[in-house]
Amino acid sequence: MTGIEMIKFFNTMDRKLEEFKPIHPNEARMYTCGPTVYNFAHIGNFRAYMFEDLLRRTLKYFGYKVTQVMNLTDVDDKTIRDSQAANMSLNDFTAQYKKSFFEDLETLNIEPAEMYPAATGHINEMIALIEVLVEKGYAYQADDKSVYFSIAKFPEYGKLAKIDLENQRSGVRIKNDEYAKDSVADFALWKAWDENDGDVHWESPWGRGRPGWHIECSAMAMRYLGKTFDIHTGGIDNMFPHHEDEIAQSEAANGCTYVNYWLHCAHLMVEGDKMSKSAGNFYTLRECVEKGYDGRELRWVLLGAHYRKKLNFTFAACDQARVALNKFAELFARLKDIKAEGDGSEAEEIVLKAKHAFENGLADDLNISEALAAVFGLQHDANKILNSNNLSKAGAEMILAQYRKFDEVFALFEVDAVKEEVVPAEVMEMAEKRCAARVAKDWATADAMRDQLKELGWVVEDSSDGFKVKKI
RNA sequence: GGCGUGGUAGCCAAGCGGUUAGGCAGUGGUCUGCAAAACCAUCUAGAUCGGUUCGACUCCGUUCCACGCCUCCA
């Protein structure tokens, strides 16, 4: 069993690599900004969830007990707007996208968080938190009946994003006069009902309305993880204002540090550009699956670059992922065929080398490239021993066991998965006829049939003990 | 305007002040009736101009280019 060793993370708060020291020994409590459930999540969203999966799996690999809370934003401008457009109740409307979100997580083999609290289930906690802020003088109800957080009352505002509000572009998009807020930068904690909200509203000490977006994360994180917890993750674009606002309201209310380690994931690009609907490079996970890529291939691609670097998603990369995964599958099959006697000592060195490189990579702020290099390195080393016929069954088992360990974090190899492709009877029949032609050394017929199978979308590969049929 | 990130071989992508990153593609080979698959080998870069140094892809500065955030987009 791998013990806990030093793990370093890049903390956005001070922009430095820091050794991870949890509040509770051997335990990591983390909060993750989850989806707004108004549509299918796209692959950019999943890059962030994939990073968080890598993070939680790595922590578990190193022996930490992980408690991860991921919120579901099921009430906001977009969910209200789109549920009305769909002529559905807010609950019914968001329920379908919550469901699809969990299906997508499963497709990508993303390990479930311990809790998925929904905003609409925690209105009371949010109201209670806002009440504290009002009592302490950090929040006020404006003429428009909404309750705002007063940034002027929290001097540390901007410490995460390193934003100095004095130097910000002002007046470009916001006409100050249109707002009832004391200051443009003040953000809504409670939004007073207006007719656009329809029947979506809750009662509160400030009248009917609904919570602002930021307060939900603070309220739910506090409820399930405590006033101070270890790790808060999210996309880089949520750093400001969302996470900054979370800090302000949480620390103002509690008088203590909200989060010890802030980890932010960079954006996903598509074919070199920012993903956008207008550019036509906007993909949901489902669309990628429809294009024929499976969850493991997409997982490989989304995991492919360090989380703090922009990742360029391309379908060429998906094809490469397929090739790579096939080679590993091939290796596992070869290893499982080994029968030779021996104590396995011939594999010890290469396995240990790979294990150390893998762990060093992960412990260094989740350096996925280093970890992957270790995984490929073991593939290469294992093949060399295989080719020299010096590998014993015990050695092969040792290597396979190491890949199972790798998979605790990568969840890509599925060392023991048996993937049986359903080959249609007519394809199988033709392949068998071709095999007979080969046995009869009728190469012309055999080659013609191979071409025919190819046209049907199947490739046939000969081997010493027969043939294999695979879908193209 | 303010703050910030990055530019590495055909493509993707790391570490590192001097010693092979890794993957994909390509090329050569093994295997095969021919293929395919797989395996082995190989290809060896650091936007620009300066500086520091015995030595820089790695440190400092310049220029150029790309990108992100600046009120609710992971």
Report what the structure shows:
- The chain is of the alpha/beta class.
- The protein is 44% helix and 15% strand.
- It has 14 helices and 15 strands.
- The protein has helices spanning 43-61, 77-85, 90-107, 123-135, 213-225, 239-254, 285-290, 295-302, 315-337, 345-363, 368-387, 393-410, 425-439, 443-455; strands at 8-11, 16-19, 27-32, 65-70, 139-141, 147-149, 187-192, 209-211, 229-235, 259-265, 268-270, 273-274, 311-313, 458-463, 466-471.
- A four-stranded parallel β-sheet has the order 4-3-9-10, sandwiched between helices.
- α2 crosses α3 and α8 packs across α9 (315-337).
- The longest helix is centred in the C-terminal third of the chain and has 23 residues, at 315-337.
- It binds one RNA strand of 74 nucleotides through α1, β9, α6, α9 and α11.
- Strand content is 5-15%
What share of residues is helical?
A: 40-55%
Instruction: Enumerate the spans where pLDDT stays under 50 for 5 or more consecutive residues.
Output: 170-177
Any idea what the shape is? Answer: elongated
Search tags:
472 residues, alpha/beta, 4-stranded antiparallel beta sheet, single chain, RNA-binding
SSE diagram, text form:
Elements: E1 8-11, E2 16-19, E3 27-32, H1 43-61, E4 65-70, H2 77-85, H3 90-107, H4 123-135, E5 139-141, E6 147-149, E7 187-192, E8 209-211, H5 213-225, E9 229-235, H6 239-254, E10 259-265, E11 268-270, E12 273-274, H7 285-290, H8 295-302, E13 311-313, H9 315-337, H10 345-363, H11 368-387, H12 393-410, H13 425-439, H14 443-455, E14 458-463, E15 466-471
Parallel strand pairs: 3-4, 3-9, 9-10, 11-13
Antiparallel strand pairs: 1-2, 5-6, 6-7, 7-8, 11-12, 14-15
Helix pairs in contact: 1-12, 2-3, 4-5, 4-6, 5-6, 8-9, 9-11, 9-12, 10-11, 10-12, 13-14
The chain binds one RNA strand of 74 nucleotides through α1, β9, α6, α9 and α11.
